[in-house]
Automatic annotation (TrEMBL):
PANTHER family, A to Z: HTH-TYPE TRANSCRIPTIONAL REPRESSOR PURR-RELATED (PTHR30146:SF148), LACI-RELATED TRANSCRIPTIONAL REPRESSOR (PTHR30146)
Domain HTH lacI-type: 10-64
Highest rank taxon of the organism: Bacteria
Name the UniProt record assigns to this protein: LacI family transcriptional regulator
Region (Disordered): 1-20
Signal peptide segment: none
The entry's keywords: DNA-binding, Repressor, Transcription, Transcription regulation
Species in which this protein is naturally found: Subtercola frigoramans
Amino acid sequence: MKQSGNEAHPTISDVARHAGVSRATTSRALSNYGVVNSETRTKVLRSAEELGYVPNVLARSMRAGSTQTLGLIIAEVGLSVFDLAMRSVIESASLQGYQVLVTNTNEDLIAERASIRVMLEKQVDGLIVVPSAVVDLEFLSRSDLKGKPVVLLDRSLVTLGIPSVTADNNRGARDAIEHMHSLGHTKIGLIVVTANLEGETGERPRGLISTIHDRVEGYHAEMAESGLPVNPDWVRYCGDAGESALTAVRAILDSPEPPTALLASNGNMSLAVLRVAKERGLVIGRDLSLVGFDDAPWATVLTPSLTVVDLPIEEMAKAAVDNLIAQIADPSAEQASVTLPTRLLVRHSVDDLTAHPGAVIRTHAAPATPLRTQKRALTSP
C-alpha cells in the first residue's frame, strides 16, 4: 500500500523489510546490477511499487561523483537571442545525457552571484554563464567555484582566463557600417544599451561587457576606415530598453545635423528606434535607415523588413555545451575560447541614397508623400 502524502517518503530500507530481503539485495534489484535472481527482483520491485518508493537519483549521482546536470545562467530571458541560446543549450546537453538548470539574472550582478551559489548548492557538474559585468567577479574564480568547470557564452572575460564562446561582434558592426556606406550613407549614428547605467548619455560608460564593447569599437573603426566623421551627437548610450532608450533615440534625431542611418546594438534598441520613428511619422527605409543586431522573429514581419547582424547563437550554445562537457570529462585538458563569424542579413530597412542623391532625413512628422521607387541590391536570408 502506498504511503499517504503526509507520511515520510519510504526508503530503500523500508522496501527491503517489506520484501523480506537484505538492503544490499534490494539495492542491486532496484539498480539492476549484480546477481539477483528473477524471483527476488520481482518481489523487490513489487514492494517498491506498493510502498510508493521513489529512488533518490540526485543522491545516487552525487555518490557517483556526478549529477549529470549543467547550470545555465542567462542574462536576459525574453530577449530573442538568449531564448534561442537557452533552447539550444538544453537540446545539446540532452543529447549528451545531461539535464540543465536555468536561472535568469536580468543583467544584475547581485542576481548573478546568487545564481552561482544556487547552482553550486544543486551540485551541477559545470556552468555555462552569460556574465553581466566585467568587474567584481571574484565569485567566478576557480577557488570560489570549488573547481567546477565554467564556460562563458556570448561574452568573454579575458582577465579571468575562462574559456568563452562568442561571436565576432566587431566584424559584425563593421559589416553593418560598410553596408550602409555602400548605399550612400555618410552620417551614421549608434544607439547602445548597456547594463548598470541610469538614464542615457553621450559619454561612453566604463565597464562595457565585451559584446557591446566590440560592437562600439567596430562602429568607430569602420567609420574611421571609411573616412566618415563621427558626430558626438550621433552616439548615445542608455541603461535600459524603456523610456531612456526612447529619449536617447530622440536626442540623436533632434541633433542639429541628424544622421540618415542608425546602427542599433541589439533587438531592443531596434524596437526603440522603430517606436520613435512611428511617433514621428517616419518611414524606416525611406526617412530613416536602420540596421540592428540579433535576428528576431519580428524582423522579417515588419514593413520594411529589418536588416540585421545575425549571431550564430544556436551554434555558439552548442559549442559551449561541448566545451563544458569536455572540461568535465578531462579537467586537466585546457579548453580554448571560440569566436564564430556573424552574418549580415540584408533586407529592406536601409535606403539606397545613391539612387536619389541629396535626400535629407526628416526627424519629425510631415504630410505623407508617395514612396520613392528604390533601387536596392538585396540578399534575402
